[in-house]
Amino acid sequence: MRFHTINPVDNNILNTYSFIENKDIRDKLSIAQKAYEKWKDFSFSSRIGYIMKLSSSMQDLIDIIAYLITQEMGKPITQSRLEVKKCIKLCEYYYHLEESILFQDISTEYEKSYIRFESIGSILGIMPWNYPIWQTIRFVIPNILLGNVIVLKPATNTAGCSLLLEKIFIESGFPKGVFQVFLMDIPKIESVIADPIIQGVSFTGSHLAGSHIGYLSGKYIKKSVLELGGNDAFVVMRDVEDLKKTAKLATESRLNNTGQTCISAKRFIVDNFIVDDFIDLVIQEMKQYQRGDVHDEYTKIGYISRVDLSEKLYKQYQDIISNGGKVCLQTTRDGNFFSPCLLKIEDNNFSYNQEEIFGPIGIVYTFSNEEEIHSMVNATCYGLGASIWTKDIKKAESLSKKINTGMVFVNDIVKSDPRFPFGGIKKSGYGRELSVLSIKEFSNCKTIIINK
Question: pLDDT digit string (tens) for 432-452?
Fold first, then answer.
Protein backbone atom coordinates (compact mmCIF):
# COMPACT_ATOMS: atom_id res chain seq x y z
CA MET A 1 0.00 0.00 0.00
CA ARG A 2 1.34 3.43 -0.98
CA PHE A 3 0.86 6.90 0.47
CA HIS A 4 1.94 10.44 -0.37
CA THR A 5 3.49 13.34 1.48
CA ILE A 6 1.73 16.61 0.59
CA ASN A 7 2.99 20.17 0.63
CA PRO A 8 0.42 22.06 2.78
CA VAL A 9 1.07 25.31 0.93
CA ASP A 10 -0.29 24.13 -2.42
CA ASN A 11 -1.48 20.57 -1.65
CA ASN A 12 0.85 19.16 -4.31
CA ILE A 13 2.40 15.72 -3.88
CA LEU A 14 5.99 15.84 -2.63
CA ASN A 15 6.81 12.14 -2.61
CA THR A 16 5.29 8.67 -2.62
CA TYR A 17 6.18 5.92 -0.15
CA SER A 18 5.12 2.35 0.58
CA PHE A 19 3.98 1.00 3.92
CA ILE A 20 6.15 -1.73 5.33
CA GLU A 21 4.96 -5.33 4.89
CA ASN A 22 4.55 -7.82 7.74
CA LYS A 23 7.64 -9.84 6.74
CA ASP A 24 9.77 -6.72 6.65
CA ILE A 25 8.48 -5.73 10.11
CA ARG A 26 9.58 -9.07 11.53
CA ASP A 27 12.98 -8.78 9.84
CA LYS A 28 13.54 -5.24 11.08
CA LEU A 29 12.51 -6.17 14.62
CA SER A 30 15.04 -8.99 14.50
CA ILE A 31 17.68 -6.48 13.41
CA ALA A 32 16.69 -4.25 16.35
CA GLN A 33 17.10 -7.12 18.82
CA LYS A 34 20.53 -8.05 17.45
CA ALA A 35 21.56 -4.40 17.58
CA TYR A 36 20.42 -4.14 21.20
CA GLU A 37 22.45 -7.16 22.29
CA LYS A 38 25.57 -5.32 21.13
CA TRP A 39 24.59 -1.69 21.84
CA LYS A 40 23.76 -2.33 25.51
CA ASP A 41 27.37 -3.41 26.08
CA PHE A 42 28.87 -0.28 24.56
CA SER A 43 30.42 1.91 27.22
CA PHE A 44 28.61 5.05 28.31
CA SER A 45 31.41 7.17 26.85
CA SER A 46 31.20 5.32 23.52
CA ARG A 47 27.48 6.02 23.24
CA ILE A 48 28.16 9.69 24.02
CA GLY A 49 30.71 9.71 21.20
CA TYR A 50 28.06 8.60 18.72
CA ILE A 51 25.65 11.28 19.95
CA MET A 52 28.37 13.90 19.46
CA LYS A 53 28.84 12.70 15.87
CA LEU A 54 25.10 12.92 15.28
CA SER A 55 25.04 16.45 16.64
CA SER A 56 27.87 17.44 14.32
CA SER A 57 26.10 15.86 11.32
CA MET A 58 22.89 17.75 12.05
CA GLN A 59 24.88 20.97 12.36
CA ASP A 60 26.32 20.40 8.88
CA LEU A 61 22.87 19.65 7.44
CA ILE A 62 20.73 22.33 9.13
CA ASP A 63 19.57 23.92 5.89
CA ILE A 64 18.72 20.59 4.23
CA ILE A 65 16.76 19.31 7.23
CA ALA A 66 14.97 22.64 7.72
CA TYR A 67 13.98 22.81 4.05
CA LEU A 68 12.34 19.38 4.24
CA ILE A 69 10.48 20.26 7.45
CA THR A 70 9.07 23.35 5.75
CA GLN A 71 8.12 21.42 2.63
CA GLU A 72 6.30 18.64 4.48
CA MET A 73 4.45 20.61 7.16
CA GLY A 74 4.33 24.22 5.98
CA LYS A 75 6.39 25.67 8.83
CA PRO A 76 8.22 28.97 8.16
CA ILE A 77 11.85 28.25 7.32
CA THR A 78 13.19 30.29 10.24
CA GLN A 79 11.21 28.17 12.70
CA SER A 80 12.35 24.98 10.93
CA ARG A 81 15.98 26.00 11.40
CA LEU A 82 15.32 26.74 15.07
CA GLU A 83 13.84 23.26 15.43
CA VAL A 84 17.04 21.65 14.15
CA LYS A 85 19.23 23.91 16.30
CA LYS A 86 17.19 22.94 19.33
CA CYS A 87 17.90 19.27 18.56
CA ILE A 88 21.63 20.03 18.45
CA LYS A 89 21.44 21.77 21.84
CA LEU A 90 19.59 18.77 23.26
CA CYS A 91 22.39 16.45 22.10
CA GLU A 92 24.91 18.77 23.77
CA TYR A 93 23.01 18.59 27.06
CA TYR A 94 22.98 14.80 27.08
CA TYR A 95 26.55 14.23 25.97
CA HIS A 96 27.78 16.37 28.85
CA LEU A 97 26.12 14.10 31.44
CA GLU A 98 28.16 11.77 33.63
CA GLU A 99 27.58 8.02 33.90
CA SER A 100 26.95 8.49 37.61
CA ILE A 101 23.36 9.48 36.76
CA LEU A 102 22.69 5.77 36.23
CA PHE A 103 23.65 4.86 39.78
CA GLN A 104 22.29 5.74 43.20
CA ASP A 105 23.99 4.59 46.39
CA ILE A 106 21.79 3.89 49.42
CA SER A 107 23.33 3.97 52.88
CA THR A 108 22.24 0.83 54.76
CA GLU A 109 23.59 -1.85 57.09
CA TYR A 110 24.75 -3.86 54.06
CA GLU A 111 28.30 -3.78 52.77
CA LYS A 112 27.02 -2.35 49.52
CA SER A 113 23.52 -1.35 48.44
CA TYR A 114 22.66 0.67 45.40
CA ILE A 115 20.32 1.15 42.47
CA ARG A 116 21.49 0.76 38.91
CA PHE A 117 19.42 1.99 35.97
CA GLU A 118 19.85 -0.40 33.04
CA SER A 119 18.51 -0.53 29.49
CA ILE A 120 15.59 -2.82 28.67
CA GLY A 121 15.65 -3.28 24.88
CA SER A 122 13.82 -1.98 21.83
CA ILE A 123 11.53 1.00 22.38
CA LEU A 124 8.77 1.91 19.92
CA GLY A 125 8.32 5.63 19.37
CA ILE A 126 5.11 6.82 17.71
CA MET A 127 5.88 10.42 16.89
CA PRO A 128 3.82 13.35 15.49
CA TRP A 129 4.21 15.70 12.54
CA ASN A 130 4.25 19.13 14.19
CA TYR A 131 7.92 18.92 15.23
CA PRO A 132 9.06 15.94 13.14
CA ILE A 133 12.75 16.17 14.07
CA TRP A 134 12.58 17.65 17.58
CA GLN A 135 9.92 15.27 18.92
CA THR A 136 11.92 12.31 17.63
CA ILE A 137 15.31 13.49 18.87
CA ARG A 138 14.04 14.29 22.38
CA PHE A 139 12.66 10.74 22.64
CA VAL A 140 15.59 8.98 20.97
CA ILE A 141 18.70 10.51 22.55
CA PRO A 142 18.00 9.70 26.23
CA ASN A 143 17.11 6.13 25.29
CA ILE A 144 20.13 5.36 23.14
CA LEU A 145 22.36 6.96 25.79
CA LEU A 146 20.94 4.47 28.30
CA GLY A 147 21.56 1.60 25.90
CA ASN A 148 18.13 1.02 24.39
CA VAL A 149 17.52 0.89 20.64
CA ILE A 150 14.74 2.64 18.74
CA VAL A 151 11.94 1.63 16.40
CA LEU A 152 10.26 4.76 15.05
CA LYS A 153 6.75 4.96 13.60
CA PRO A 154 6.56 8.53 12.22
CA ALA A 155 3.55 10.52 11.09
CA THR A 156 2.98 9.71 7.43
CA ASN A 157 2.76 13.35 6.33
CA THR A 158 6.35 13.96 7.52
CA ALA A 159 7.76 10.58 6.48
CA GLY A 160 10.56 12.22 4.49
CA CYS A 161 11.88 13.99 7.59
CA SER A 162 12.06 10.71 9.50
CA LEU A 163 13.81 8.89 6.67
CA LEU A 164 16.33 11.73 6.39
CA LEU A 165 16.98 11.46 10.12
CA GLU A 166 17.51 7.70 9.79
CA LYS A 167 20.05 8.37 7.04
CA ILE A 168 21.87 10.86 9.28
CA PHE A 169 22.06 8.28 12.08
CA ILE A 170 23.59 5.78 9.69
CA GLU A 171 26.05 8.29 8.25
CA SER A 172 27.04 9.30 11.78
CA GLY A 173 28.28 5.74 12.28
CA PHE A 174 25.59 4.28 14.53
CA PRO A 175 25.54 0.47 14.35
CA LYS A 176 22.85 -1.00 12.12
CA GLY A 177 19.52 -1.33 13.91
CA VAL A 178 20.07 1.18 16.72
CA PHE A 179 17.65 3.58 15.03
CA GLN A 180 15.14 2.31 12.46
CA VAL A 181 12.13 3.92 10.80
CA PHE A 182 9.02 1.80 10.24
CA LEU A 183 6.65 3.34 7.70
CA MET A 184 3.62 1.37 8.81
CA ASP A 185 -0.10 1.98 8.68
CA ILE A 186 -2.14 2.20 11.85
CA PRO A 187 -3.57 -1.38 11.85
CA LYS A 188 -0.04 -2.80 12.17
CA ILE A 189 0.80 -0.89 15.34
CA GLU A 190 -0.80 -3.43 17.68
CA SER A 191 1.22 -6.34 16.31
CA VAL A 192 4.45 -4.38 16.79
CA ILE A 193 3.55 -3.41 20.37
CA ALA A 194 2.63 -7.05 21.06
CA ASP A 195 5.95 -8.36 19.75
CA PRO A 196 8.18 -9.54 22.63
CA ILE A 197 11.12 -7.63 21.16
CA ILE A 198 9.40 -4.31 21.93
CA GLN A 199 9.85 -3.43 25.62
CA GLY A 200 8.30 0.02 25.78
CA VAL A 201 6.19 2.53 23.87
CA SER A 202 6.50 6.30 23.74
CA PHE A 203 3.66 8.18 22.07
CA THR A 204 3.15 11.87 21.32
CA GLY A 205 -0.17 12.98 19.85
CA SER A 206 -3.84 13.49 20.63
CA HIS A 207 -5.40 12.21 23.85
CA LEU A 208 -7.80 10.01 21.85
CA ALA A 209 -5.01 8.22 20.02
CA GLY A 210 -2.97 8.18 23.22
CA SER A 211 -5.79 6.46 25.05
CA HIS A 212 -5.68 3.63 22.51
CA ILE A 213 -1.88 3.35 22.67
CA GLY A 214 -2.08 3.29 26.47
CA TYR A 215 -4.66 0.51 26.25
CA LEU A 216 -2.49 -1.57 23.90
CA SER A 217 0.58 -1.02 26.07
CA GLY A 218 -1.34 -2.21 29.10
CA LYS A 219 -2.80 -5.15 27.21
CA TYR A 220 0.68 -6.43 26.36
CA ILE A 221 2.28 -5.22 29.62
CA LYS A 222 4.68 -2.75 28.07
CA LYS A 223 5.88 0.39 29.83
CA SER A 224 4.53 3.51 28.11
CA VAL A 225 5.02 7.27 28.14
CA LEU A 226 2.23 9.44 26.73
CA GLU A 227 2.77 13.09 25.82
CA LEU A 228 -0.66 14.23 24.72
CA GLY A 229 -2.57 17.46 24.15
CA GLY A 230 -2.72 20.65 26.13
CA ASN A 231 -5.01 23.58 26.77
CA ASP A 232 -2.49 25.79 28.51
CA ALA A 233 -3.59 28.89 30.37
CA PHE A 234 -1.76 32.22 30.12
CA VAL A 235 -2.75 34.09 33.29
CA VAL A 236 -2.27 37.89 33.29
CA MET A 237 -2.61 39.75 36.61
CA ARG A 238 -3.38 43.47 36.74
CA ASP A 239 0.02 44.18 38.31
CA VAL A 240 1.97 42.70 35.39
CA GLU A 241 5.24 44.56 34.86
CA ASP A 242 4.90 45.36 31.15
CA LEU A 243 1.53 44.63 29.54
CA LYS A 244 2.76 45.36 26.00
CA LYS A 245 5.65 42.93 26.33
CA THR A 246 3.33 40.35 27.92
CA ALA A 247 0.87 40.66 25.02
CA LYS A 248 3.73 40.20 22.55
CA LEU A 249 4.89 37.02 24.31
CA ALA A 250 1.31 35.78 24.56
CA THR A 251 0.97 36.17 20.81
CA GLU A 252 4.30 34.48 20.11
CA SER A 253 3.33 31.54 22.31
CA ARG A 254 -0.07 31.16 20.65
CA LEU A 255 1.20 31.52 17.06
CA ASN A 256 4.50 29.66 17.17
CA ASN A 257 4.42 26.82 14.64
CA THR A 258 1.13 28.31 13.41
CA GLY A 259 -0.47 27.41 16.73
CA GLN A 260 0.20 23.70 16.18
CA THR A 261 1.96 23.20 19.50
CA CYS A 262 0.75 21.35 22.59
CA ILE A 263 2.31 23.89 24.99
CA SER A 264 1.19 27.07 23.25
CA ALA A 265 -0.88 29.57 25.24
CA LYS A 266 -4.40 28.57 24.23
CA ARG A 267 -6.44 30.33 26.92
CA PHE A 268 -5.63 33.91 27.89
CA ILE A 269 -7.08 34.37 31.39
CA VAL A 270 -6.85 38.10 32.05
CA ASP A 271 -7.80 40.43 34.89
CA ASN A 272 -10.98 42.25 33.87
CA PHE A 273 -9.36 45.57 34.83
CA ILE A 274 -6.77 45.31 32.01
CA VAL A 275 -8.44 42.97 29.53
CA ASP A 276 -9.43 45.61 26.96
CA ASP A 277 -5.87 46.92 26.76
CA PHE A 278 -4.54 43.36 26.56
CA ILE A 279 -6.89 42.51 23.68
CA ASP A 280 -5.91 45.66 21.75
CA LEU A 281 -2.22 44.88 22.17
CA VAL A 282 -2.60 41.22 21.13
CA ILE A 283 -4.53 42.26 18.03
CA GLN A 284 -1.74 44.65 17.10
CA GLU A 285 0.78 41.83 17.48
CA MET A 286 -1.33 39.29 15.59
CA LYS A 287 -1.61 41.64 12.63
CA GLN A 288 2.17 41.39 12.25
CA TYR A 289 1.80 37.71 11.33
CA GLN A 290 1.07 38.05 7.63
CA ARG A 291 0.84 35.35 5.00
CA GLY A 292 4.03 35.02 3.01
CA ASP A 293 6.47 32.67 1.33
CA VAL A 294 7.33 30.04 3.96
CA HIS A 295 10.89 30.00 2.61
CA ASP A 296 11.29 33.72 3.27
CA GLU A 297 13.30 34.50 6.41
CA TYR A 298 10.79 37.17 7.47
CA THR A 299 7.63 35.05 7.26
CA LYS A 300 6.37 34.42 10.80
CA ILE A 301 3.35 32.19 10.22
CA GLY A 302 2.88 29.13 8.07
CA TYR A 303 0.10 26.73 7.16
CA ILE A 304 -2.08 24.15 8.88
CA SER A 305 -0.33 20.91 8.03
CA ARG A 306 -3.23 18.97 6.49
CA VAL A 307 -6.54 19.74 4.80
CA ASP A 308 -8.58 17.73 7.31
CA LEU A 309 -6.99 19.60 10.22
CA SER A 310 -7.67 22.95 8.56
CA GLU A 311 -11.32 22.00 8.13
CA LYS A 312 -11.58 20.87 11.76
CA LEU A 313 -10.02 24.11 12.96
CA TYR A 314 -12.44 26.26 10.98
CA LYS A 315 -15.37 24.30 12.38
CA GLN A 316 -14.10 24.92 15.92
CA TYR A 317 -13.83 28.62 15.12
CA GLN A 318 -17.42 28.74 13.86
CA ASP A 319 -18.70 26.70 16.80
CA ILE A 320 -17.17 29.08 19.33
CA ILE A 321 -18.81 32.06 17.64
CA SER A 322 -22.19 30.35 17.36
CA ASN A 323 -22.02 29.58 21.09
CA GLY A 324 -21.53 33.20 22.07
CA GLY A 325 -17.84 33.83 21.43
CA LYS A 326 -17.13 37.47 20.57
CA VAL A 327 -14.89 38.08 17.55
CA CYS A 328 -12.10 40.49 18.48
CA LEU A 329 -10.02 39.70 15.37
CA GLN A 330 -11.59 37.72 12.54
CA THR A 331 -9.77 34.98 10.69
CA THR A 332 -9.31 34.58 6.95
CA ARG A 333 -9.11 31.01 5.75
CA ASP A 334 -7.77 30.03 2.33
CA GLY A 335 -7.09 26.33 1.88
CA ASN A 336 -4.60 25.39 4.59
CA PHE A 337 -3.83 29.01 5.45
CA PHE A 338 -5.59 30.25 8.56
CA SER A 339 -4.84 33.82 9.62
CA PRO A 340 -4.45 34.58 13.35
CA CYS A 341 -7.64 35.48 15.17
CA LEU A 342 -8.79 36.38 18.66
CA LEU A 343 -12.05 35.46 20.35
CA LYS A 344 -13.44 36.44 23.74
CA ILE A 345 -15.63 34.13 25.79
CA GLU A 346 -17.82 35.41 28.61
CA ASP A 347 -18.94 31.99 29.84
CA ASN A 348 -16.05 30.46 31.77
CA ASN A 349 -17.73 27.05 31.65
CA PHE A 350 -17.67 26.99 27.86
CA SER A 351 -17.13 23.49 26.47
CA TYR A 352 -13.97 24.39 24.55
CA ASN A 353 -12.11 24.19 27.84
CA GLN A 354 -12.28 20.45 27.14
CA GLU A 355 -11.09 20.55 23.53
CA GLU A 356 -7.63 21.39 22.25
CA ILE A 357 -7.52 23.98 19.48
CA PHE A 358 -4.48 23.21 17.33
CA GLY A 359 -4.10 26.37 15.30
CA PRO A 360 -3.77 30.18 15.48
CA ILE A 361 -6.94 30.93 17.47
CA GLY A 362 -6.45 32.88 20.68
CA ILE A 363 -9.25 32.77 23.26
CA VAL A 364 -9.66 35.36 26.04
CA TYR A 365 -11.38 34.74 29.39
CA THR A 366 -11.61 37.26 32.21
CA PHE A 367 -11.59 37.19 36.00
CA SER A 368 -12.42 39.88 38.54
CA ASN A 369 -11.35 38.01 41.67
CA GLU A 370 -7.95 36.34 41.92
CA GLU A 371 -9.49 33.53 43.95
CA GLU A 372 -11.17 32.42 40.71
CA ILE A 373 -7.94 31.87 38.82
CA HIS A 374 -6.92 28.37 39.84
CA SER A 375 -10.41 26.97 39.25
CA MET A 376 -10.51 28.60 35.80
CA VAL A 377 -7.08 27.24 34.90
CA ASN A 378 -8.02 23.77 36.14
CA ALA A 379 -11.41 23.71 34.38
CA THR A 380 -10.09 21.53 31.57
CA CYS A 381 -9.40 17.85 31.06
CA TYR A 382 -5.80 18.72 30.18
CA GLY A 383 -2.90 19.40 32.52
CA LEU A 384 0.24 20.12 30.54
CA GLY A 385 1.47 23.63 31.33
CA ALA A 386 0.48 27.11 32.47
CA SER A 387 2.11 30.51 32.78
CA ILE A 388 1.48 33.30 35.30
CA TRP A 389 2.35 36.95 34.68
CA THR A 390 2.69 39.19 37.73
CA LYS A 391 5.18 41.26 39.72
CA ASP A 392 4.18 39.42 42.90
CA ILE A 393 6.38 36.30 42.82
CA LYS A 394 5.16 34.98 46.16
CA LYS A 395 1.59 35.20 44.94
CA ALA A 396 2.57 33.39 41.73
CA GLU A 397 4.33 30.60 43.63
CA SER A 398 1.32 30.18 45.90
CA LEU A 399 -0.97 30.01 42.87
CA SER A 400 1.33 27.51 41.14
CA LYS A 401 0.62 25.00 43.94
CA LYS A 402 -3.09 25.14 43.14
CA ILE A 403 -2.67 24.68 39.38
CA ASN A 404 -3.00 21.09 38.16
CA THR A 405 -0.37 20.89 35.44
CA GLY A 406 3.00 19.27 34.90
CA MET A 407 4.71 22.63 34.37
CA VAL A 408 4.17 26.20 35.59
CA PHE A 409 6.22 29.13 34.29
CA VAL A 410 6.16 32.53 35.99
CA ASN A 411 6.80 35.56 33.77
CA ASP A 412 7.89 33.34 30.91
CA ILE A 413 6.15 31.29 28.27
CA VAL A 414 5.90 27.52 28.67
CA LYS A 415 8.67 25.88 26.67
CA SER A 416 10.63 22.65 26.50
CA ASP A 417 14.18 22.74 27.84
CA PRO A 418 16.48 19.66 27.92
CA ARG A 419 17.41 20.46 31.54
CA PHE A 420 13.87 20.12 32.91
CA PRO A 421 11.27 17.32 32.87
CA PHE A 422 8.58 17.80 30.24
CA GLY A 423 5.11 16.30 30.54
CA GLY A 424 1.68 16.63 32.06
CA ILE A 425 -1.13 15.06 34.01
CA LYS A 426 -4.81 14.25 33.38
CA LYS A 427 -5.50 13.88 29.63
CA SER A 428 -2.14 15.45 28.84
CA GLY A 429 -0.63 12.06 29.55
CA TYR A 430 1.94 10.56 31.91
CA GLY A 431 5.66 10.05 32.16
CA ARG A 432 8.34 12.62 31.46
CA GLU A 433 10.58 13.50 28.56
CA LEU A 434 13.82 15.52 28.75
CA SER A 435 16.17 15.98 31.72
CA VAL A 436 17.85 13.10 33.54
CA LEU A 437 14.40 11.69 34.35
CA SER A 438 13.79 10.83 30.68
CA ILE A 439 16.75 8.45 30.68
CA LYS A 440 15.12 6.48 33.47
CA GLU A 441 11.62 6.19 31.97
CA PHE A 442 12.50 3.11 29.93
CA SER A 443 15.02 1.60 32.31
CA ASN A 444 15.23 -1.37 34.61
CA CYS A 445 15.61 0.19 38.06
CA LYS A 446 17.65 -2.64 39.51
CA THR A 447 18.33 -2.98 43.24
CA ILE A 448 21.73 -4.45 44.17
CA ILE A 449 22.28 -5.70 47.73
CA ILE A 450 25.67 -7.11 48.83
CA ASN A 451 25.95 -8.56 52.31
CA LYS A 452 29.15 -9.11 54.22
Answer: 999 999 999 999 999 999 998
How many angstroms from the chain centroid is the CA of residue 175?
27
**Average pLDDT for residues 364-374, to the nearest whole number?**
96
In the set 72, 83, 166, 227, the catalytic residue is 227
Determine the distance from the C-alpha atom of residue 9 to the mean position of all C-alpha atoms in its chain, rounded to a whole number: 23
pLDDT digits (tens, 9 = 90+) for 95-117: 999 999 999 999 999 999 999 99
* Strand, helix or coil for residue 80: helix
**CA 363 to CA 409: how far, in whole Å?**
19
Based on the structure, what is the number of domains in the chain?
2
User: Whole domain around residue 147: which residue ranges?
Assistant: 2-228+428-450
423 in any annotated domain = no
Q: Are residues 74 and 185 in the same domain?
A: yes
The verdict on pTM exceeding 0.85 is yes
Q: Is 262 a catalytic residue?
A: yes
Q: Is 227 a catalytic residue?
A: yes
Within this chain, do residues 238 and 219 fall inside the same structural domain, yes or no? Answer: no
Q: Is the dihedral of CA 235, 237, 241, 246 positive or negative?
A: positive
For residue 375, the model assigns a pLDDT of: 95
Same domain for 240 and 332, yes or no, is: yes
Annotated catalytic residue: which of 91, 161, 262, 328? 262
